[in-house]
Write a structure and sequence with these properties.
By secondary structure, this protein is an alpha/beta fold. Helix content is 29%, strand content 21%.
Length: 284
């Protein structure tokens, strides 16, 4: 019997996330053929370009797997925030958001075909548009973070900077990213991302890398968040390992289930404007 078509799960956006929802209309949908596979993607192209601009690549989580090419634009703001008018005024850039329909990173620390297809897609976009190749940035959440970790290992210094949220990877291999520029944000009560990524940081330090650490309440006011970011950056490390305190990622009346802290992390992470600013300061 044929399988029914994959239907995306319902996604509830916070008021802060919903404020960015209209930015989805700014993206166009395309597909890339890659070794017998088809990878749909969403692309935002800035209105005004008089010089090469950076590219931000967003890789979504497993809960956003879908046959609908623009579903990644409707599950949160990981792609949308960079295309916002106010953000573009400060940090103009292209925004690329692949849409995956099958799991692309696994708990045994292996990845599927979509990993290399994403690299091929980025190269395709860089050939087609006026992209500053020294300022390719990437960000991911959960599965997207896991795949991005593997891509940093297998393609060193491909990305100028990465923002990883709610994910983890193989501590035995993560020392390979010790020279990358990375900001990591997880929830303290995420039962996998917090402890396993912590082990990854120890491996990086053992290999001679430098890691800054810091934590903050997800619901803190903007100045408190800004000071937290300044304190982390002041540690002069290329890798920042940060976490959101305790239950602070939970919304009032939140339904409690095993992965609630994990899945709530990116509802806050992309709202940290100083982290977005830090990312754009990185350059190969």
């Amino acid at each position: 019997m044929p399988h029914p078509p994959m239907m995306p799960p319902p996604i509830q956006l916070t008021a802060q996330e919903a404020a960015y929802a209209d930015n989805a209309k700014k993206f166009s949908q395309f597909t890339l053929a890659y070794e017998g596979h088809t990878l749909p993607y969403n692309l935002y192209v800035p209105d005004h370009m008089d010089h090469p601009l950076p590219l931000v690549v967003f890789m979504h989580d497993m809960g956003s797997l879908s046959e609908e090419p623009d579903f990644t634009l409707r599950q949160g703001i990981g792609a949308l925030v960079w295309a916002d008018e106010k953000e573009q005024e400060k940090r103009p850039c292209f925004v690329l958001a692949p849409q995956y329909s099958e799991k692309s990173a696994h708990d045994d620390y292996t990845v599927g075909w979509a990993a290399e297809a994403t690299i091929a897609l980025i190269r395709h976009i860089c050939e087609k548009y006026d992209i500053d190749a020294s300022r390719i940035y990437s960000t991911g959440q959960s599965m997207g973070t896991m795949m991005l970790c593997e891509l940093m290992i297998t393609h060193p210094r491909f990305f100028a900077g990465c923002f990883l949220t709610a994910g983890q990877w193989d501590p035995e291999r993560m020392a390979a990213i010790k020279d990358e520029h990375v900001w990591i944000m997880v929830s303290e009560h995420d039962g996998r991302a917090f402890p396993i990524m912590g082990e990854c940081m120890k491996a990086i330090e053992k290999a001679g890398g430098k890691v800054a650490r810091g934590h903050v309440d997800a619901k803190a006011d903007e100045e408190t968040k800004a000071q937290f970011c300044r304190d982390v950056v002041a540690q002069n490390a290329n890798i920042q390992f940060t976490w959101l305190d305790g239950d602070s990622v939970l919304l009032p009346g939140a339904h409690i289930f095993p992965a609630v802290h994990h899945m709530s992390t990116w509802k806050w992470a992309y709202l940290f404007e100083p982290v977005r600013a830090w990312l754009f300061e990185q350059k190969l």
